[in-house]
Amino acid sequence: MDEQDPRPTEHTPEVPAEATPDVNPEVNPARFGAPLPPPAWSSATPPVPPRRRGPRLLAVGTALAAVAGAAGAGFLLGHLDDHGHPAAGGPPSSYAGQVPNGQRFGEAPFGGTPFTGPGGRGTPFDSASRGTPATDSQLTGLVRIASTLKYQGGRAAGTGMILTSTGEVVTNHHVVEGSTKLQVTVMSTGQTYTATVVGTDAKDDVAVLQLENASGLQTVTPDTDGVSVGDAVTAVGDAGGSTSTFSAAAGDVLATGQNITTSSELGRGGEKLRGLIKISSDVISGDSGGATYDDGGEVVGMTTAASTGSNDVVGFAIPIAKVTRIAGELENGTENARYDYGSPAFLGLGLGGSSTRVGVVYPRTPAARVGITAGDTITRVGATTVRTATQLRDAITTYSPGDRVRVSWTDRNGTSHIASVTLMSGPVA
Q1: What would be the CATH architecture of the domain defined by 9-22+342-425?
Q2: Among residues 403, 389, 421, which one has the least CA distance to residue 98?
């Protein structure tokens, strides 16, 4: 019987720096954490069950993660599609080269994974019982952010605030995380712009976008006096993912200087958000990145999270002074270990766990072009040996899109391979 050639197989195909990936429907999602199919109800008129209360914390926006704090534990609400329903599809458990700090919020990055609800599968929340339609003055300076999530097979929507007349927009990091394309609609005019991500601060959950060819835009008015317990506030945003209007939820300031910790529905640890304003407004999915106004119409905070108890919803907002400070630094390109700029390098594969075993390979990406397939194990990136998912992600993040690097892997038959690949631009990390 012939013996297997132990020498590495050399591949030298040229990989384009840009590619349009698809979801591979043949990958077993249970085994590899690959993209899931759309929920069975994801049609033009899916059922909308009554809103369900429970002892859980939510971060309101286009994200799936959880907040654990004094009130308990729960989850950040998931990405809504353009009809107000959870975005179809779910990503692999981690993206090699997409999430530099590792997968912080469980089995999926923000977005893409359907909500869990009464039926245990992708049930959307009923936004009809929440708040009242926003007034014209409340819509001034607010935008709807629609994200395309190619690698998750879905779309998402959230809220943002215009800071400059030339189109600088601030929102939550979790609103844009995982996105590959952003369309932003100014709610007061209906004008839609393509947007790019200037920079992000994942630790503080802040992101800055720039609208292309924008001018003469009306901005929000930040408060300069701060808030006190008992002050009246109103949270305004894309609650429920409406495509035509925003809603407003009145409440009061319950506390300031609040700290919460995000975690996934699966119970994994997450990030700490500090110094938040706690409000009684009924904030829900889609509100993330929106405005929390005082009774004078000035923005006192950026709505970010909410906790639900058996009867009441409690919201959290990042103080506007902190938001504008971070936004200004991101816009100016300030060097800070917390800040990320531009698009990350992307190899084009997802991992099924903590090892470097490949769970899914996206078509027309560098990994796919050189023949890496599900079940293979990545062993080396450039001069760096990798044995864990974290090591692989860290190795990829030392490169930029367009960089050429040698990648080594072992296939499921034990044969070693080496290939030179040109890394492409990945989703927002």
Answers
A1: Roll (2.30)
A2: 389
Averaged pLDDT in 10-residue chunks for the chain of 429 residues:
43 38 29 26 27 33 32 31 40 31 25 24 34 93 94 88 98 93 97 97 96 98 96 94 87 96 49 92 91 98 80 88 98 94 92 91 95 96 96 93 97 96 94
Query: CA-CA distance, 339 to 421, in Å (whole number)?
Result: 27
Pure H helices in 251-335: 320-332
The phi, psi pair for 155, rounded to 5°, reads -130, 165
Nearest to 160 by CA among 173, 147, 143, 177: 143
What is the C-alpha separation between 224 and 262, in angstroms, rounded? Answer: 28
Beta bridge partners of 339: 201
Residues facing residue 249 across a β-bridge = 235
- List pLDDT tens digits, range 190-248: 999 999 999 999 999 999 999 999 999 999 999 999 999 999 999 999 987 777 789 99
Query: What whole-number distance in Å separates Cα of residue 85 and Cα of residue 87?
Result: 6
The residue written with tokens 């329903």 in the block is: 85
390 phi, psi to nearest 5 deg: -65, -45
The residue with tokens 């119970």 is 267
Q: 202: which 2 tokens?
A: 């994942």
Q: How is 321-370 classified by DSSP, letter by letter? A: HHHHHHHHHHHHT---TTEEESPPEE--EEESSSSSBEEEE-TTSHHHHT
Among 231, 30, 263, 248, which residue's Cα sits nearest to residue 133? 248
What CA–CA distance (Å, rounded) separates 44 from 82? 11
3-state secondary structure of 139: helix
Dig out the tokens for 335 from the structure. Answer: 């060097």
Cα 377 to Cα 64: distance, rounded to the nearest angstrom: 28
Kindly report the CA angle at 210 between 145 and 304, in degrees rounded to 5?
45
In 39-109, beta strands by DSSP E: 56-58, 67-68, 94-95
8 A C-beta contact, residue 159 and residue 142: yes
Domain ranges of the chain: 9-22+342-425
Nearest of 156, 154, 159, 157 to residue 172 by alpha carbon: 159
Q: Are 340 and 97 in contact (CB under 8 A)?
A: no
